[in-house]
Amino acid sequence: MIENLTQRWRRCGQREQWLLMLCAAVLLLFFSQHLLLSPLYNWRQQQQQGLEQAQRDLQWIQSQQSRIETLQQQPTPPPTEALPSLLQRSASEMNVPFSLAKNGVLTLPPQPFSPLLAWLAQLELRDGMQVRRLSLQMGQSGQLTGELEFKHD
User: Which sequence spans correspond to the domains of the chain?
Assistant: First the structure.
């Protein structure tokens, strides 16, 4: 097969060889752009967006520090309602969706980090709820999913 291609190449005139080399170079540039450079650019953009989101989350956490310190100084009132209703009420106030399994584990659908963190802080500081187990995964869109289990003081 290589011999066949070599013979065809030799039969082509100089102008045809030059055009074939030009076409090969254009194809090489096209494929390198679409198979190498474009995916690298997209990956870099995703990483940059993730970094920017993490920086926004850090700024939000730092801006909430004084509020958290104030709430920590207040005594925690004893719970006045059952755990499922307490979780439902506080989650709806903070716009945090979840589903509660029979074993007491909360399943978190994809959602942003900041409201989830604010909800957990509010539950601990206002209602005395502490997390026993937390498992989070970040999806491609920067949204968190996971499972959550509470212990109540």
Answer: 14-57, 76-152
